[in-house]
Specification:
By secondary structure, this protein is mainly alpha-helical. It has a single domain (about 5-65), classed as Helicase, Ruva Protein, domain 3, CATH 1.10.8. Helix content is about 65%, strand content about 0%. It is built from 4 helices and no strands. The termini are far apart.
């Protein structure tokens, strides 16, 4: 699924977009990682039989990001 397809198949509400943007800045996500989070959140929403991606879906998707261990 390309970036243009995300808008069609995985639209975000304003509150979800703000949550994701704030998280992306804090976690220093690349554009590719940002879009992967949306795709994963869409999958989580589908499994929950939800028509829209919610904040809980985004937060769960963000939890699956690998932790960076800075020494």
């Amino acid at each position: 699924m390309g970036v243009k397809d995300l808008e069609k198949f995985a639209p975000l509400t304003d509150s979800c977009r703000k949550l994701l943007n704030d998280s992306a800045k804090r976690l220093d996500l690349s554009a590719r990682a940002y879009h992967r989070v949306i795709k994963l959140a869409r999958t989580i929403a589908d499994l929950a039989e939800s028509k829209q991606i919610g904040e809980t879906h985004l937060l769960e998707a963000l939890q699956y990001r690998p932790r960076v261990n800075l020494l």
